[in-house]
Automatic annotation (TrEMBL):
In the C-terminal section; belongs to the prokaryotic molybdopterin-containing oxidoreductase family. Belongs to the complex I 75 kDa subunit family. The keyword Metal-binding applies. It is an enzyme of class 1 (oxidoreductase). Residues 8-64 form the 4Fe-4S Mo/W bis-MGD-type domain. One of its GO terms (molecular function) is formate dehydrogenase (NAD+) activity. Keywords: 2Fe-2S, 4Fe-4S, Iron, Iron-sulfur, Metal-binding, Oxidoreductase, Repeat. This is Formate dehydrogenase major subunit.
Length: 700
């Protein structure tokens, strides 16, 4: 017991917000958290924190918490509070009845990037082993699934290549479609420190690729050398134009490519990007970025000597999201910028455990460790440990579940810690799908939007109420430690175990540590992961096994790419289907703000949200003037999918013709207007490009 003023003891745990994964000390008085103090030994944050991690934990004891299981036969019936046993038996019975009538594949499950690795692993195990189907997907479907595909194809593994500290060695930093100042604040501070240097002109140079003039472009202490303010939906054209300059101006790192890459795919790619139609000049009309800026940025990136790319959902949430991820990987390989400190390709993960939920086999085609379900050798290993026969065919992704529900063949869903009704695109379509199902089981800490369509509500547990691990954006596995008992009596992993038992597939775990042991036994990249090792070393980075140092792997692809030779892919730019017309003359794109987090379920229930209490529509002064809109006016936003009303912020951060909003408040209905257009490879929704009209309206 450590005496800390008011506090009686402290427990070290990990922030439950963004993918930076900051370590915190929860200072406690009895079962009550007195305050959260950033942990100075936390490797991801080294004693730093942002407003969310430090102050926005009050939601864990908010009066809106669901603490009693509830059931109802029809979604029009009132909720009835029942015991855990009754709720779980009811859910199991209804799932089995649906399967008896419509087949095993008529139900499925969704895992959460806010839950622990152990909980996510259990949900996919429940779906595959107890439900007997591969219809399991994760909320990463709507954010970083193109990262999984694109980096898997090019490098051989679906993860960022660097530690956060690697940015200290970068000479050139390229930020694409990410706003770390708002979405990854602690890492943004580290990046800014590197950009500022030590005051002798030795800071790193910055290139920002973003339609909006984000904070990094010109803040008091940091200024981007090049801001490629592209039109939304033209990422692939920009990355191809950058590559064109590298290839045609002799900037390729030939020795690196010859030694480390698949030269056949490289030569095909070189021929493709080198064509005149892929020059910055030829693509300028599409991208809106002056060719001279593209040429200068390409030269700067290629010159390095250490150039690092950091990207976010502005890359992935596009119809060509996977193509763009591969385009980034192509560029990095061609310039020799993968496999050492200070370089690399780094997806910035929005949620605390997006990396982990993907690692744990949450995709319908992959078992834990990104191994395809059709691989007989891998499947046999899981079958031996799980004691069931697994289906070798991939299951349904979330959008396919919705289609099948509307088509009448998908009837039941177990949804843990994910508000698909608010966060998935084209709300009307999602509502139709959810309203078509016979049994939806929602496991969450609040009565979220999806719960409106649910038949069973199982109370979830917050990160303070359970043990487990989260994996951050640098593949760092850190402990989540229970600091108070679960408010509803059971932690999320215990609920999944009980549901599985009720379905007739017994699971035998007394503690999440045993679940991690099973994960390590079955997953080569996790073979060296254990709670004991995390306790001893503070955190581990996968791959962590007999071939790596005890704490795992800080820099990926050092001696060679995981897939062997790095592979280049052709990145043909295909314009988005979302075209501006006279009816919809503006392009809407979306993003986050510092004080809020995703759908706001947590941050809206803490006092610090007082300084940002609504989503607003940002538009350029020219677009505002044309519509007679001044700052603070109410505006109607109409797209081909739907319409909503927000207040306007007139801002020269925007370029003319492009508008922007956040998506933290359910009443704003940002996803009422987004369409169901999605990435060709992964179905990740194209949230970042929606053609809209904006007009002034009366206050609703
Ligand atoms: Fe939490 Fe991210 Fe803020 Fe760190 S930067 S305190 S992980 S929200």
């Amino acid at each position: 017991v450590i005496k800390l003023g008011q506090a009686e003891h402290s427990v070290i745990t990990t922030c439950a917000y963004c993918g930076v994964g900051c370590g915190f000390k929860a200072e406690m008085k009895g079962n009550e958290v007195v305050r959260m103090v950033p942990w100075k030994d936390g490797k991801a944050n080294e004693g730093h924190s942002c407003v969310k991690g430090r102050f926005a934990w009050g939601y864990t004891t908010h009066k809106d918490r669901i603490t009693k299981p509830m059931i109802r036969d029809q979604i029009t019936d009132p909720w009835r509070e029942v015991s855990w046993d009754e709720a779980i038996s009811y859910a199991a019975r209804r799932f089995r009845e649906i399967q008896a009538q419509h087949g095993k594949d008529s139900i499925g499950g969704i895992t959460s990037s806010r839950c622990t690795n152990e909980e996510t692993y259990l949900v996919q195990k429940l779906v595959r082993a107890a439900f007997g189907t591969n219809n399991v997907d994760t909320c990463a479907r709507v954010c970083h699934s193109p990262t999984g595909y694109g980096l898997g194809q090019t490098f051989g593994t679906s993860a960022g290549t660097q530690t956060f500290s690697s940015v200290d060695e970068a000479d050139v930093i390229m930020v694409i479609g990410a706003n770390p100042s708002d979405a990854h604040p602690v890492f943004a501070s580290r990046m800014k420190k590197r950009l500022r240097g030590r005051g002798h002109g030795d800071g790193a140079s910055l290139i920002v690729v973003d339609p909006r003039r984000i904070d990094l472009v010109s803040s008091p202490h940091v200024r981007a050398e090049h801001h490629l303010a592209l039109r939304p939906g033209t990422n692939v054209a920009v990355i191809t134009a950058l590559a064109h300059v590298v290839v045609n101006e002799g900037l390729v790192n030939e020795a690196y490519v010859a030694e480390r890459c698949d030269t056949r795919s490289f030569e095909q790619w070189r021929e493709f990007v080198g064509r005149p139609e892929n020059s910055p000049e030829a693509l300028e009309a599409s991208t809106g970025v002056p060719a001279a800026e593209v040429r200068a940025a390409a030269r700067l990136y290629a010159a390095g000597p250490n150039s690092a790319i950091y990207y976010g959902l502005g890359v992935t949430e596009h119809a060509q999201g996977s193509t763009m991820v591969m385009g980034i990987a192509n560029l990095a390989m061609a310039c020799g910028m993968v496999g050492r400190e200070g370089v690399g390709v780094n997806p910035l993960r929005g949620q605390n455990n997006v990396q982990g939920s993907c690692d744990m086999g949450s995709f319908p085609h992959e078992l834990p460790g990104y191994r395809h379900i059709s691989d007989t050798t891998v499947r046999t290993q899981f079958e031996a440990v799980w004691g069931v026969e697994l289906n070798p065919e991939p299951g349904l992704r979330i959008p396919n579940m919705f289609e099948a529900a509307i088509g009448g063949t998908f009837k039941g869903l177990y949804c843990q810690g994910e508000d698909i009704a608010q966060s998935d695109p084209n709300t009307q379509h999602v509502s139709q799908a959810l309203g078509s199902m016979e049994c939806i089981v929602v496991q969450d800490i609040f009565l979220n939007e999806t719960a409106k369509f649910a038949h069973v509500l199982l109370p979830g547990s917050s990160f303070l109420e359970k043990d487990g691990t989260f994996t951050n954006a640098e593949r760092r596995i850190s402990r989540v430690r229970q600091v108070m008992p679960p408010m509803a009596g059971l932690a999320d992993w215990e609920v999944t175990v009980q549901l599985s038992n009720a379905l007739g597939y017994p699971m035998h775990y007394d503690h999440p540590e045993q679940i991690m042991q099973e994960i390590a036994d079955l997953t080569p990249s996790f073979r060296g992961v254990s709670y004991e090792a995390i306790e001893r070393l503070g955190s581990l980075q996968w791959p962590c096994n007999e071939d790596t140092p005890a704490a795992g792997t800080a820099i990926m692809h050092e001696g060679g790419f995981v897939r062997g030779k790095g592979r280049f892919f052709i990145t043909q730019y295909i314009p988005s289907d979302e075209k501006v017309t006279r009816r919809f003359p503006l392009l809407l794109t979306t993003g986050r703000i510092l004080s809020q987090y995703n759908v706001g379920a947590q941050t809206r229930r803490t006092p610090n949200n007082m300084w940002h209490d609504e989503d607003r529509l940002e538009l350029h002064p020219e677009d505002a003037k044309e519509r007679g809109v001044v700052d603070g006016d109410w505006v109607g936003i109409t797209s081909r999918a739907g319409q909503t009303v927000l207040r306007a912020t007139v801002s020269d951060r925007m370029q003319p013709g492009v508008v922007y909003t956040t998506f933290h408040f359910p009443e704003s209905g940002a996803n009422v207007i987004t369409t169901d257009s999605s990435d060709w490879a992964t179905n990740c929704p194209e949230y970042k490009v929606t053609a809209v009209q904006v007009s002034k309206v009366a206050q609703p």
